[in-house]
Specification:
flat, 58% strand, six-stranded antiparallel beta sheet
Amino acid sequence: MEAGILDASWIAPTTNTDGSPLTDLASYRVYYGPADSPCPGPTFLEVASPTPSPAPDQPVAFRLRGLSTGFLYYVSVTAVNTSSYESDCSTPTASAGAHFSFAVTPAGPVDFGSVNLGAFADQTFVVRNASVGTVSGSASISAPFSIVSGSPFTLAVGASQTVTVRFSPTASAAATANVNFTADGDTIPGIVTGTGTDTTPPTVAITSPTSNPTYSTTAPLLTLEGTASDNVGVTEVTWTNGLGSGTASGTTSWTASGIALQVGTNMLTVTARDAASNTATASLAVTFTPIFALTVSPSGEGTGTVTGTPGDINCGASCTASLASGTVVVLTATPSAGSVFLGWSGGGCTGTGPCTVTMSAATTVTATFTPTFLLTVTRSGAGTGTVTGTPGDINCGAACTASFASGTVVVLTATPGASSVFMGWSGGGCTGTGSCTVTVSAATAVTASFAPIFTLTIGRSGEGTGTVMSIPGD
């Protein structure tokens, strides 16, 4: 097993093409390929410049990795400034054969053979430095294999080191894994295999379900999964519980479907039998708790969100959650800007507060949102007075604008100030001087006009008598 590399070096440029000093060097592009004149081309590696202003005769070195050893590669370099302008390709084009930096033997798959459970077997690999400098790296592998010794490693030129790999089977089965040797930026993989064997009596393990599963129906059929092992082979696996039984013959990995469960605790027993009639059993207590769907349905012309605790209810993101029977869920409605929450329906919920649902069946709850509109009251005229609204926050002076849910009926009342008179309404469909009734279905403006009152005094003089009358007036 080998990994190919190629070392390239060049002298950093110091001037631009116009002869001015180079002060904005950003990187180099190392173009490479199996054919002459690889530059410019699609295959290159970007190498950052350590300085924007290289000193004279400053060397730059870079290692190309992952190449095919023994093949000839052509290499050319360009310089790129901070404005992404690229220089011409270096000439003449350099070429060299790729060589490997380190090697691992043996190269082919390594078989550990058959190993009893509880025991182990070791195999060795040799890592050799084949480069012109020191090579450092490590080896890794997944269970049931492990690295016993020899990793990490640091090898001088021409040096080698032994890496020991151990197979410790945990099951009566064939195992395969990759042992990876990583060094100098390259990884060399190798395949290892082994087979675990069992010299003990039959064993059986239930791997599914968990000890407390939940199901979405009121009469579920359980699928029981598991494994059984024996050095001479398991010929039969049976499962039983209070409501049924079944058999899966001639297998060590089995699935038995159709076990009926009752609400509450169910005791499941699995029996494995080998060719010599030896048996082993495993038991599992399974609690059946039905689950039901809780669905929240937003309605109305307004917008808002509904969240649930616990559970995954989050409208808009998710409006349906599956919850175990007996779960108490608290739903909270939050209207969006420009909307108001009108209330709940379904699930036994009403009003606008939190909605509490105890799950005992599939349940649907509706949350109704409606848009809100501004009602604005403007006072006009030279007189003074106040306008109040029922319901709502209209109170001119204090507040002349309020938001109302669509369809709200608001009654406005105008009260003139001292020495003023209320002249009447305009806007919102209101006229006259009585109360103004507005049904809010859009942004609405109403004007209340007030006029001042002045005193007209008429004096009588002379020795005669008479009367003075005015129209209108008192």
